[in-house]
């Protein structure tokens, strides 16, 4: 694993170079064509794309409930127990995110307020392909259900041997209303615009490959999205009290996701940096997903050696990682130095996979440096806010002059007259 020992400014330039998000014009063009075809031809277009991209003939997109029930009933007991534990912890955490509206009646004759309403229909994209992600279903569906979403549907790529039973069981555990066997950009288009079989939704959430991410970006505005998720990332801040074997294992836990995943370690110890690099090389040799992880480590990963602990946090705030581990002595005392991170893991026993599965905080997180301005998925992503206003005539009369003055400053005479009409002027 590459080790850099440079000035802080040089290291920040390396970070920005490795995190720069570039659009692929050819992918954007292909996705645009897929979306237009789905808009025009609905189910037929989706079926053709599933045959082309997933090599699966699909007659009925919607999976029968009996298939879902059977998967749940036959699921191995230890897997079911793990999913139920995850549900318990995810639910207990996200229940605390629920918000309420408010009413303000402090001014005489004035009633103001805000009410919160859950979205009606939400579509969850669950990746298929190289791995199954039942945990992603729990992380996306449970906050939606807690928020009160009426209809939660899943789209996930069809598999020749059927969708992974753990995925189906997780959907049942999370209270998902229906599952549709469709993936890729065509799935995003179907959710955004609706087809004969697949319902149009209000919001699409969940991670996916570059085609899914590009499609979400292109349909935004027609439908809401959670974020444009990129490859997985882990940043680790560690001092010489950390265990290099554990650090290497944690870095590889994200490198195995994707060839474009970013594993980054920042430390003030050259000795630790060298030991971690050596352990990464050793552990890679026995990792089942060695090829994927090796490319991630070689092309996107690095270890940065800085002079002092404040520099470690300064550099990592520039990285703004999806996952951030703080493996130093007394890690909680440094929590306030973190400004940019999707989720923070404190201490040697808070290894990143803890957050992926059972801790409770959401694992659908901002990537690609977007933790500078984005948040983890939560209950708040599945509600909308509506404000309301009521004035009595005396209350309006008191503020009418200010309203009409501002309206005329903006050249909007009609606005001013709408107010004055309440007091027998103009109309």
TrEMBL record:
Binds 1 zinc ion per subunit. Its EC number is 1.1.1.23. Belongs to the histidinol dehydrogenase family. The active site is at residues 322-323. Zn(2+) binds at residues 254, 257, 356, 415. This is Histidinol dehydrogenase. Its cofactor is Zn(2+). The keyword Oxidoreductase applies. One of its GO terms (cellular component) is cytosol. Keywords: Amino-acid biosynthesis, Histidine biosynthesis, Metal-binding, NAD, Oxidoreductase, Zinc. Pfam families: Histidinol_dh (PF00815). One of its GO terms (molecular function) is zinc ion binding. PANTHER family: HISTIDINE BIOSYNTHESIS TRIFUNCTIONAL PROTEIN, HISTIDINOL DEHYDROGENASE HDH. NAD(+) binds at residues 125, 186, 209. Catalyzes the sequential NAD-dependent oxidations of L-histidinol to L-histidinaldehyde and then to L-histidine. Pathway: Amino-acid biosynthesis; L-histidine biosynthesis; L-histidine from 5-phospho-alpha-D-ribose 1-diphosphate: step 9/9. The keyword Nucleotide-binding does not apply. The lineage of its organism: Bacteria, Bacillati, Bacillota, Bacilli, Lactobacillales. It catalyses: L-histidinol + 2 NAD(+) + H2O = L-histidine + 2 NADH + 3 H(+). GO terms for biological process: L-histidine biosynthetic process. InterPro entries: Ald_DH/histidinol_DH (IPR016161), Histidinol_DH_CS (IPR001692), Histidinol_DH_monofunct (IPR022695), Hstdl_DH (IPR012131). Substrate binds at residues 232, 254, 257, 323, 356, 410, 415.
């Amino acid at each position: 694993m590459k080790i850099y020992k440079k000035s802080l400014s040089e290291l920040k330039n390396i970070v920005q170079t490795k995190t720069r998000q570039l659009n692929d014009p050819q992918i954007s063009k292909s996705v645009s064509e897929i979306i237009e075809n789905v808009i025009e031809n609905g189910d037929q277009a989706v079926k053709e794309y599933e045959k082309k991209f997933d090599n699966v003939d699909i007659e009925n997109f919607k999976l029968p409930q009996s298939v879902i029930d059977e998967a749940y009933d036959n699921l191995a007991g230890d897997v079911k127990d793990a999913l139920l534990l995850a549900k318990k912890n995810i639910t207990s955490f996200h229940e605390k995110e629920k918000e309420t509206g408010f009413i303000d009646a402090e001014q005489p004759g004035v009633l103001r307020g805000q009410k919160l309403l859950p979205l009606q229909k939400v579509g969850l994209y669950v990746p298929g392909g190289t791995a199954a992600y039942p945990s992603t279903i729990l992380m996306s569906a449970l906050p939606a259900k807690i928020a009160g979403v009426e209809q939660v549907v899943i789209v996930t790529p069809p598999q020749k041997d059927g969708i992974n039973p753990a995925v189906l069981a997780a959907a049942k555990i999370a209270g998902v209303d229906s599952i549709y066997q469709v993936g890729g950009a065509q799935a995003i288009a179907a959710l955004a615009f609706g087809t004969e079989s697949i319902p149009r939704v209000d919001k699409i959430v969940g991670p996916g490959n570059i085609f899914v991410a590009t499609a979400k970006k292109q349909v935004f505005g027609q439908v809401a999205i959670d974020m444009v998720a990129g490859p997985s990332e882990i940043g680790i801040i560690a001092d010489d009290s950390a265990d290099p074997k554990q650090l290497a294992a944690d870095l590889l836990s994200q490198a195995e996701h994707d060839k474009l995943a970013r594993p980054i370690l920042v430390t003030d110890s050259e000795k630790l940096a060298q030991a971690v690099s050596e352990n990464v090389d050793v552990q890679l040799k026995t990792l089942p997903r060695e090829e994927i992880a090796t490319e991630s480590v070689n092309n996107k990963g690095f270890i940065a050696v800085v002079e002092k602990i404040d520099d470690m946090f300064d550099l990592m705030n520039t990285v703004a990682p999806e996952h951030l581990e703080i493996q130093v002595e007394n890690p909680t005392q440094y929590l306030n130095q973190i400004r940019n991170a999707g989720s923070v893991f404190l201490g040697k026993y808070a290894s990143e996979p803890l957050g992926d599965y059972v801790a409770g905080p959401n694992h659908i997180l901002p990537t690609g440096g977007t933790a500078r301005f984005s948040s983890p998925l939560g209950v708040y992503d599945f509600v909308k806010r509506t404000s309301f206003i009521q004035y009595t005539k005396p209350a309006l009369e008191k503020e009418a002059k200010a309203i009409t003055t501002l309206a005329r400053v903006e050249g909007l005479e009609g606005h001013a007259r709408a107010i004055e009409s309440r007091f027998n002027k103009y109309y």
